[in-house]
Amino acid sequence: MRKPFVAGNWKMHGSKAMVISLASDLQAGLGSIKGVDVAVCPPAAYIDLVKTALGEGFVQLGAQNIANEPGQGAFTGEVSVDMVKDLGCRYVIVGHSERRTLFGETDLDVARKTALVLDAGLTPILCVGETLAQREAEETEAVVAAQIRAVLNQVGVVAFENVVVAYEPVWAIGTGKTASPEQAQAVHAFIRGLVAEQDEAIAARLIIQYGGSVKPDNAAVLFSQPDIDGGLIGGASLNAVDFLAICNAAGDACSE
Ligand code: PEP
Q1: CATH of domain 5-100+107-255
Q2: Which atom of ligand 1 is least distant from the CA of 127?
Q3: 225-234 pLDDT tens trace
Q4: Were 233 and a residue from 55, 193, 199, 237 both cysteine, which residue would form a disulfide, CB within 3.0 to 4.6 Å?
Q5: Phi, psi (rounded to 5 degrees) for 167
Q6: Could you give the dihedral angle defined by the CA atoms of residues 5, 89, 148 and 13, in that order, rounded to the nearest 10 degrees?
């Protein structure tokens, strides 16, 4: 049985005061939540501050992105995987659609970053998903397959033992439009099937989160789908009450 995993992507939001307050509220509220792994991914500038505010609880830290280069070097403005590891991160989001569309990251860039994260001993949260135009052109499976296969080709299926996949239809991110549970389940099952083509046991253990306008009122029905193992949460992760409710929904779905 897979343990659901909920991660909050805070994107480029916050201030020192705001992230301390949010992390403290999460720390206080998450104590009673069972049956779910939880992480938050603050802006890189605040990771250290959030770590201190979270203290020794079970909430893990993640980074939203890393440089596409190993080690250190003359890459002004970049943050390396070793740096976010040094700050205490266990997870790194790779291939978020905002990185792909706004910053031009290709499937190959994403595959390379996934390999860097794995080489550092951290867990990538690999985001995949189609745009509205691609869905309407019935290209969802082809797009998602290309995104997943680029990473499989780079790191090999065995490495997927330590990969989390997040299916995030681009048209549902930050738009208030959520994929229906059936739409999401169909793509999750398709992704699991892609990995199963190479290793059924690893596919069966693979955590596949759903992301795209998950809110407290739709989380339970999404998480109750057989191939949806929690969520990657954007907007709602900036509100402690909402994020805690979503974590609770994932824990409840697990114990059903
Ligand atoms: C995201 O950015 O990964 C995301 C899912 O955002 P939202 O929950 O706001 O749609």
Answers
A1: 3.20.20.70
A2: 3
A3: 999 999 999 9
A4: 237
A5: -85, 115
A6: 80
The average pLDDT across 162-174 equals 95
Q: How far is the CA of 8 from the centre of ligand 1 (A)?
A: 9
Residues labelled catalytic: 96, 168
Q: Are strands 60-63 and 91-94 parallel, antiparallel or unpaired?
A: parallel
Count the alpha carbons within 13 Å of 192 in the hemisphere toward its beta carbon. 21
Residue pair 81/92 in contact by the 8 Å Cβ criterion: yes
Binding site membership of 231 for ligand 1 (Cβ less than 6 Å): no
Q: Is 62 in the pocket of ligand 1 (CB under 6 A)?
A: no
CA distance 68 to 116: 8
d(CA 158, CA 203): 10
Question: Which of 186, 188, 102, 103 has the alpha carbon at shortest distance from 148?
Answer: 188
pLDDT in tens, 3-53: 999 999 999 999 999 999 999 999 999 877 889 999 999 999 999 999 999
Sign of CA dihedral 93, 96, 98, 102: positive
* pLDDT one-digit tens code per residue, 110-135: 999 999 999 999 999 999 999 999 99
Domain edges within the chain: 5-100+107-255
The answer to whether the CB of 203 falls within 8 A of the CB of 196 is yes
